[in-house]
């Protein structure tokens, strides 16, 4: 299955609202025993201490302002952003596809003409214990996921998800975008008409048509557009590679470029796009990965507290 189709299937809702669109709180200091060169400084911290699939890893590096900081996770470079107090922050998303067990986190700090300092740590990710949901779609529904619609969605959403705004607009814990109950949680494996498609990349809220949808935290509107599969879609850029996606809205009240505050009205729950009833899908994208958005509702050192 193509990555685009997987992204579509991953957003399917449940309990009467099938949504298909393209769309640990303690710090752990890097132990000196795991440093590749010298002792790992107390200023390098990782949280949560015991992450599960779907969590967002927070790496805080208190390096001198002129120093260059590079971070890799399992060998892949991840963006490093500056904080107002001069510290550097790295946010690494995990998903149900990230294997349980040990992963290598490496940090390199280069200050002026000094030799680079290298540190590494094994981060152990535990299982998220995600469930399975089976849905029966009406005849012809999957046929609506056409190449033309997929291309239209990706042309709109792809450049938005690639944004890496250096400033963090958010502060404090996020809030849920709706007071409605969640009827389809993050990470569940989806089976449509007997065929496994993908895991759910967000949380679905079973609200009524017209119920308010609010900004989960401060940000800039990166997209407010009607799409063939996502329907009325709003994407908020919270900065530093963190973006929220809200789809199937009946309407939206914001426009690209608008600055919004936490709790501000951005739209209303609807049934637009490829969906069988009123539903709100909230997805949270962190530097290239769809993470569990509910993780961000709680205070975490260096992230939401």
Major β-sheet profile:
10 strands, antiparallel
Q: What is the CATH topology descriptor of the largest domain?
A: Glucose Permease (Domain IIA)
Name the CATH superfamily assignment of the largest domain.
Glucose Permease (Domain IIA)
Which structural class should the secondary elements be placed in? mainly beta
Low-confidence segments:
1-6, 14-39
Distance between the termini: 40 Å
In short:
This protein is mainly beta. The chain has helices at residues 3-9, 147-161, and strands at residues 28-29, 44-47, 56-61, 68-73, 76-78, 81-82, 88-93, 101-110, 117-125, 132-135, 182-184, 189-192, 195-199, 203-205, 212-214, 219-227, 231-239, 242-252, 259-260, 265-269, 280-286, 289-291. A hairpin with a 2-residue loop joins strand 12 (189-192) and strand 13.
How would the blueprint of this fold be written?
Layout: H1 3-9, E1 28-29, E2 44-47, E3 56-61, E4 68-73, E5 76-78, E6 81-82, E7 88-93, E8 101-110, E9 117-125, E10 132-135, H2 147-161, E11 182-184, E12 189-192, E13 195-199, E14 203-205, E15 212-214, E16 219-227, E17 231-239, E18 242-252, E19 259-260, E20 265-269, E21 280-286, E22 289-291
Parallel strand pairs: 10-12
Antiparallel strand pairs: 1-2, 2-3, 3-7, 4-5, 4-8, 6-7, 8-9, 11-14, 12-13, 14-21, 15-20, 16-17, 16-19, 17-18, 18-20, 18-21, 21-22
């Amino acid at each position: 299955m193509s990555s685009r189709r997987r992204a579509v299937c991953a957003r399917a809702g449940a309990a009467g609202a099938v949504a298909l669109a393209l769309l640990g709180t303690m710090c752990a200091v890097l132990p000196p025993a795991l440093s590749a060169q010298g002792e790992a400084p107390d200023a390098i911290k990782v949280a949560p201490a015991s992450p599960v699939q779907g969590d967002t890893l927070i790496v805080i590096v208190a390096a001198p302002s002129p120093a260059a900081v590079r971070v890799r996770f399992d060998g892949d470079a991840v963006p490093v952003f500056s904080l107002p107090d001069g510290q550097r922050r790295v946010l690494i998303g995990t998903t149900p596809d990230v294997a349980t067990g040990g992963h290598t986190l490496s940090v390199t700090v280069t200050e002026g003409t000094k030799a680079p300092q290298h540190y590494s740590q094994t981060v152990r990710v535990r299982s998220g214990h995600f469930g399975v949901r089976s849905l029966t779609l009406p005849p012809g529904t999957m046929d609506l996921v056409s190449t033309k619609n997929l291309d239209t969605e990706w042309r709109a959403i792809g450049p938005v998800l690639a944004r890496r705004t250096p400033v963090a607009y958010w502060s404090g814990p996020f809030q849920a975008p709706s007071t409605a109950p969640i009827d389809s949680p993050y990470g569940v494996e989806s089976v449509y008409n007997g065929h496994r498609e993908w895991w759910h990349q967000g949380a679905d809220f079973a609200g009524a048509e017209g119920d308010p949808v609010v900004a989960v935290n401060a940000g800039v509107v990166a997209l407010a557009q009607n799409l063939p599969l996502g329907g009325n879609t709003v994407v908020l850029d919270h900065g530093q590679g963190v973006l929220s996606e809200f789809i199937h809205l009946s309407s939206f009240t914001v426009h690209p470029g608008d600055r919004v505050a936490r709790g501000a009205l951005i739209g209303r729950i609807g049934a637009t796009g490829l969906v069988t009833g009123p539903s709100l899908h909230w997805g949270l994208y962190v530097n290239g990965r769809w993470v569990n958005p509910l993780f961000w509702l709680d205070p975490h050192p260096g992230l939401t507290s």
